[in-house]
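Supplementary Text 2. Reproducibility record for the structural model of the 277-residue chain.

All settings were left at their defaults, and a single model was retained for analysis rather than an ensemble. We include the record here because the model underlies the residue-level annotations in Supplementary Table 4.
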Amino acid sequence: MRWKQFLTPVKSFDRDQARNFIDSHAPDDHLILDVRQPKEYENGHIPGARLIPMAELPDRIPSLPTDKPILVYCAIGGRSRIAAQMLSGKGLKEVINLTGGFKAWEGLSAFGPREKGLDYFTGLQSAPETLIIAYSLESGLLDFYDTMAAKVKNQAASDLFKKMSGIEITHQARILKEYNRVSATETSREEFEKNILPGIIEGGMTTEEYAGLFQTDLEDLTQIIELAISIEAQALDLYLRAADFSQDKDSKEILSQIAKEEQTHIRLLGDLLAKED
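Retained model, structure tokens:
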């Protein structure tokens, strides 16, 4: 037994340092590693985190990237510290432990099992196929925002939903432009939408499922912004996990880029929420 390995000091970040670390790195430039149990992950996790339970970690070290930093976390920091010590000296670029774990995180979070939403992504799709699915998922959220804009009575809330709808339309236009580029076609929006998967919201849920999931006062602007942030966080989580899962280089890059755009959406909503406080 190499006891020295388990006594080696590890680099640690508190939650603010961890957030700054994630914000300052592109989605494909780092890995977030969750070493908790599947049920813990399902109940809440940092968007895009790869789940490798502690007991499986020794056998799965070869699957970890050696060219990017890895932020490791667990529930309160104990397991992740041991995991970080275990990973030290394994040829990895940099390993960082999140002090206090997910309990201390209090940042963006997603929920659901690691497979949630990935049935849309086989991991083998080509770049054009990936863009068709991404556009379809954006359509689900666009429908949600349009429905909410018409449903709420609060004018400020309605205006917010309309603004988010406009952002999704712009996002779809960029996806369509990228689709035409990678497929060397000039497909119109109308023609492209014939390929849409009906009724799927971005985070891998139907519009009806998401509307009923949160007990949100749809006349309270602050609660509505928080709802929008949670939805966008689910979308971010799905795109990051799909990028990690993808075996096609172009698809991986596309999904990572879409994830970056979701981060921008979340920052915009965060700015709006700060103005309400």
